[in-house]
Amino acid sequence: MNELGMARSDAERALEAAIVKVEAWSGRRLRYRPVSGGISNTNFRIDVEGHERDYFLKIPGRGTEMFIDRKAAAVASKQAEAIGVGPRTFDYLSHLDIEIAEFIEGRRPSTHRDFADPDIRNAAVRLYRQFHEAPALPLTKTVFDMIEEHFAQVRELDGYWPPDHAWLYRSYRQARAALEASGLDLVPCFNDPMPGNFLIGDDKSIKLIDFEYASNNERLYDLAIWSGEMFFSEEIDRTIIEEYFGHYDASRHARFIVHKALADIKWSTWAMVQNRISTLDFDFYKYGIWKHMRARSIIHDPRWPLFLKAL
After folding, report:
1. Which of 89, 114, 142, 221 has its C-alpha lying 20 to 30 A from 3's C-alpha?
2. Buried b vs exposed e over 167-177: b needs ≥16 C-beta within 10 Å?
3. How far apart, in whole angstroms, are the C-alpha atoms of residue 284 and residue 288?
4. Sign of CA dihedral 257, 260, 266, 272
């Protein structure tokens, strides 16, 4: 672990400047080390002399204020803590929009392989349902709001558009019209199912971390984006629907698949924003064009018009 004064990067210097302002840690020996994972911010584990726990601290990535409302994220984190799905959080640096939480011991970040286990997958479904049943969050931001926001940001930044952007945009608008006509089911949503955001215990229980993108959003979008992130088959999608709702329903399955396409459009466009602004060592361009490709594969499915009609 690094000691104070050993910072070598801008992120470490920002970290040191922040942690010395935490009154509860004043006069204590502070040590830190980076925590890998995440493609929006720089994360650290903090050891505070005399404290039984370590802390997890997040330095916001450059430009992330363009699409993350950190005060709303803090409320979502507090709510997750209150209902038992997230870690304990601390307000030490909330005035700087810097998030501090307990560093959870005895759990590890998930991998895609973990969710091949039906027990772990069903535990995650139950966790989603618990989060969805909590009180409404202060921020309502649907997948439509996210996509429009990122489209505007790519235009402003003169970012990359795929050659078939006009067609992708028309397809998104068509799906949006069909979903809005059928009515939206808005609930508190996690919206960011990167594998590292699921911490798994030896008993296969799960805790969620990182609520930066949480908002009131369409219920099935939250499950669909998780399915897409984990590369679940349609057969597994059906089991998720059955586990979550108690029975399988074809119209919900259609909605699920449409939301998978919208999730890939959202994150592909987000990646092109990050490709312009981020200083993190991550190939956002490659990530984005891959997400574009997968969105196309869903929309080009001959069943796509039938899915839209089934909503």
Report:
1. 89
2. ebeebbeebbe
3. 6
4. negative
The whole-model pTM stands at 0.93
Residue 162 shares a structural domain with residue 75: no
Same domain for 201 and 128, yes or no, is yes
Q: Which of 102, 132, 155 is the last residue of a domain?
A: 102
State which H helix or E strand residue 31 sits in: strand 30-35
**Structure confidence at residue 92 (pLDDT):** 84
The CATH number covering residue 95 comes to 3.30.200.20
Q: Among residues 102, 129, 160, which one ends one of the domains?
A: 102
Q: Lowest-pLDDT range, 3-17, 103-117, 207-221, 236-250? A: 3-17
**180 & 296 share domain:** yes
Are residues 150 and 198 located together in one domain of the fold?
yes
Band of residue 96 on the pLDDT scale cut at 50, 70, 90? confident
CB 72 within 8 A of CB 139: yes
What average pLDDT does range 125-143 have in this prediction?
A: 98
What is each CA distance from 230 to 7, 26, 95, 165, 227, in whole angstroms? 36, 42, 35, 25, 5
Dihedral angle, C-alpha 205, 209, 214, 217, nearest 10 °: -20
Residues 158 and 302 in one domain: yes
DSSP code per residue over 210-241: --TT-EEEEHHHHHHHHHHHTT--HHHHHHHH
**Which pLDDT value is given to residue 10?**
86
Residue numbers of the domain that contains 40: 2-102
Question: pLDDT digits over 241-286, tens only?
Answer: 999 999 999 999 999 999 999 999 999 999 999 999 998 889 999 9
